[in-house]
Specification:
3 helices; single chain; flat; alpha+beta; 4-stranded antiparallel beta sheet; 29% strand
Amino acid sequence: MADAHRQLTLNPARLDSDVGPAHTPKMNVSPLPRRGGVSFDYRDDGRALRVSAHPETGSVTISVWRDDRCVATHQLLSADVPQLIEMLASALVASTSADQATAS
């Protein structure tokens, strides 16, 4: 098994032999989405849901945050957003109907 591992090990110098030294350019990180919004968890436990629109790729990203750390993402096509809105609205209507039935 060790011999098989040695055979699969790549030599980085051969892959990029004519490339100069790598560097990491200064990055600008936006704490909030440029297009979209943030919904904070009602439990106030440092959780938030962020929605970021990406018109250049025709997509929307929904991400789950805990404090300043993204812990999960879900990406969907912009064309699928109305279906998601409908699903959320249906859940709200179902919830409201159930609340009214128990109040009667």
